[in-house]
Amino acid sequence: MTRFEHELERSSEGETLRQPLEEYIASLSDLVSHELEVILPAQWMVPENLQQAMKYSLMAGGKRLRPLLVIIACEALGGSREAALPVAAAIEMVHTYSLIHDDLPAMDNDDYRRGKLTNHKVFGEATAILAGDALLTHAFYSVVQASRKFGVPAESVLSIVEDLAEMAGPRGMVGGQIADMEGEQGLTDLAQLKYIHLHKTGDLIIFSLLAGGRIAGADEQQLEALHKFGTAIGLAFQIQDDILDLIGDEGKLGKKTGSDVKQHKVTYPYFIGLEASREEVKQLTETAHNAVLNGGFHDSQRLLEIADYLMARDH
Predict the structure, then answer these.
(1) Model confidence over 45-72: pLDDT tens digits?
(2) Is the pLDDT of residue 16 over 50?
């Protein structure tokens, strides 16, 4: 019997069985997907082709990791799941826009994403670019709804908007993406690779956790703990991706393995080997645990579980 299967959770009605982690993840993923289905206000006049292109990638599945982290961090501090949903949806829109653009011929030139044809293969390059633009822009509208609909203090929403602009922009994800494009075996060193991973992938994970904390009214100690936790699991997550690109199951990954090698991309296994990369993931997960355990949370169990879950994932 693992802690993923049987955990006790206190509720207002006494002791009840904690929902198994994978069921909890599935239920939150469904909740986020429902939110994304109706993300555009019904009264808005939006060209049908644009709506279809946005929804094609937005509803293509995936782990919903970033919105999940918004909600988990919020609930770890006793915050409202409903208030977290608009921000959870926003970060999934930002992540999806980045994938649409990342797949374009000018960047990674991928034909498949999550087992489906990439956006530009279905709708054409111009529409794919605009669908990505629309998702990025609409994300900020969605963040504001946390205040408009659920009363999250305006000052907290202002900080969330500032964090998102910073961590998704030139200092964050976009900076990491261009460093990744420029990275090449024989030219990029391990320190530069760490920069790529921390920013291309890690910053949106850190944002998600900080946003959940801000919605729940986190203090500075708790925000710092969430930042440390996010930095550790963000890097671990990307190193695990590097590992899976070498040894993963294509059926589970929904894309071809070995693409990093074919594109001469630098990876952790390229620099330090497969076993050392696995050990690095393990050590980073332990760092994440320590950050949470010392963070002063209302209920840290789900954060601990999600760190372990990400370390052990096979897709």
Answers:
(1) 999 999 999 999 999 988 899 999 999 9
(2) no
- Residue 291 CA to residue 306 CA, distance in Å, equals 14
Contact 178, 226 (CB under 8 A): no
Radius of gyration of the chain (CA): 19
| Residue 267 burial by Cβ neighbours in a 10 Å radius (0-12, 13-18, 19+) | buried
**Res 257 pLDDT > 60:** no
- Looking at residue 254, the DSSP 8-state letter turns out to be T
User: Minimum mean pLDDT among 12-16, 125-129, 142-146, 153-157: which range?
Assistant: 12-16
Read out DSSP for 62-88? ---HHHHHHHHHHHHTT--HHHHHHHH
Give the 3-state secondary structure of residue 137. helix
The b-or-e profile of 7-21 (16+ CB within 10 A means b, else e) is beeeeeeeeeebebb
What global pTM score does this model have? Answer: 0.89
Pairing of strands 7-11, 112-113: unpaired
DSSP 4: T
3-state percent breakdown (helix, strand, coil) of the chain, nearest 5:
70, 5, 25
Residue 138 and residue 40 in contact, taking contact as beta carbons nearer than 8 Å:
yes
Q: Give me the residues paired with residue 18 across strands.
A: 7
What SS3 state is found at 236?
Answer: helix
Locate 187 and state its tokens.
């030219």
Least confident stretch, 17-31, 80-94, 179-193, 285-299: 179-193
